[in-house]
Amino acid sequence: MEKSTGEDIVLLFDYYNQGSRDLLASFLNAGMQVKAAVINDDGFLPDNVENVFEYFLGPFYEGQPLYFNQLKVPTYWEISGNNSNGSVHDKSKERGRIFYSEPKNKRQVKVVDWLDDEGKVKASDHYNKYGVCYARTIFNKDEKKVSKSYFDKDGAEIIVENFVTGDIILNYEGVTNIFKNRTEFVVYYLKHKGYNNCRLFFNSLSIPFFVSNALPADENRKCDILFWQETIGGEIPGNMQLILDNKVGRCKRIAVQNSVSYDKLKKLSGAEKIIFKLGYIYPFEKPNLGRKEALICTNTENVEKLKEVVAALPEVKFHVAALTEMSQKLLSHERYDNVIMYPNIKMSTLHTLFVQCDYYLDINHEGEIVNATRQAFIQNQLILAFNETSHGAFYTAPENRFDSKDFRKLIYRLKDLLNDKDKLKKAVESQQKWALTANSDDYDIN
Length: 446
What we know:
The chain has 12 helices and 23 strands. By secondary structure, the protein is an alpha/beta fold. Helix 3 crosses helix 4 (about 205-215). The chain is globular, with a radius of gyration of 25 Å. The two termini are about 25 Å apart.
């Protein structure tokens, strides 16, 4: 069992999503020693982040992620895949669906859904970054989850979670423990690790909040903190109201990490002593140098007003990148001298473009590829978007978002910045402010 003091901090996450990653990175960039744990399992977590369930499985042997066509299937079954997902077929009948870890173009297996004769999911196999199937979820005939089993490196069943009753059975070090719910299980994990006296910082009002409330409170210790990264609707969430009303044991403050949510929450609650604004310490990789080059990333031929934008700005070199082949509709824009198309772009080339360009146009429809708006933000590219296509409003300042019917406003905005470095610098600073860029001193939290 590890030892810790009450001043130690544990970041307890429901999921290791972008908000969780940014929060952990901010603490580390501020030079603070923190521990990070995630409740919902994810076999591809970085080495400095621990999963509550996977901790009890013990270490796995060194290995590589499973490439999609390395999946073991019965003889004569066929495995196929693209850069988005894969599938398994027995002649014409689909037997399995393969889901990749990020980035998906590497085609590394994360989950495989196995289908019955009616095409319904009957089980899911979960793989980790060592290429090992460490868990299996069982579904009923209505495709609802029934149970999930977790296995150690030798295939022995260590944990069983019953989704019907909520019970969790843990077989660990020769002892069997039964927990009524996830809250009890996570509390056990924290006590086993010696973390129960640490401060808990969490970004969810579900299990992490319940865990904080289940641990004993001490008036002499510093409080737990909720880091709110979501939007706020017309009313305050019930569990958050408990914090505001001082009806919980350990959590006494709320750090809001979204500009719009902060203003709305402060107005709804009026609890300024409890609520404070705190952004992220971003790892900006380069300054904006004012180059007249813009990047567009897309996985579809539908790039809003692309023809109008490139025709109106001949002084700007536009780089349009895709991870797949491009349609003739999209490739037809190459007739403009200031447009370069990159079908099937290599990741090394794409990274070079993020560094090379100083503008990013978030104007492609459908899904976003390579987390493009975030990458553009980290490279200090000025992001401009249409409201109908925006994928990263969190990173895109309001003055740089336009309705597509007003596309000329986007053109005028870009044209206005091209020859005025002072305006461009202020625009980038406004973008950083909108995304709540913080510094190390901001993370000296009491």
